Amino acid sequence: MELTADYLREKLLRGLEAEHVEVEDTTRNRCATSFRVLVVSAKFEGKPLLQRHRLVNECLAKELQCIHAFEQKTLTPEQWRRECRK
């Protein structure tokens, strides 16, 4: 399986019914496969950070076996709108 930012983005969009997803391949700055993601989904409503991250990890369970470093930021649509206004 070839892991690309586009592949991960599409999987997160579909798997979490995300409103917005950004994926940055940070591999060139590190020694192994690395990604940074931002996921905005209504599925995160009312969930603490740990549960949100678990949802992302479940969505990418197979892919995470091949990823060395994975940073994630998870927001609800309302949190995303507030952040965009800053």
Structural features:
86 residues, alpha+beta, BolA-like_sf, 3-stranded mixed sheet, 4 helices, globular, 23% strand, GMP Synthetase, Chain A, domain 3
What does this structure look like?
This protein has 86 residues and is α+β, with helices and mostly antiparallel strands. The protein has one domain: GMP Synthetase, Chain A, domain 3, CATH 3.30.300.90. Helix content is 41%, strand content 23%. The chain has four helices and three strands, in the order αββααβα. Strands 1-2-3 form a three-stranded mixed β-sheet. A hairpin with an 8-residue loop joins strand 1 and strand 2. It is globular, with a radius of gyration of 13 Å. The N and C termini lie far apart (38 Å). The mean pLDDT is 94.
Q: Helix- and strand-based class?
A: alpha+beta
CATH architecture tag? 2-Layer Sandwich
User: Uncertain regions: pLDDT < 50 for 5+ in a row?
Assistant: none
Which whole number gives the mean pLDDT?
94
CATH homologous superfamily classification: BolA-like
Radius of gyration: 13 Å
Proportion of residues in β-strands? 15-25%
Overall number of domains: 1
Number of strands: 3
Number of helices: 4
Annotated CATH topology: GMP Synthetase, Chain A, domain 3
CATH class: Alpha Beta
- Give the N-terminus to C-terminus distance in angstroms: 38 Å
What's the shape? globular
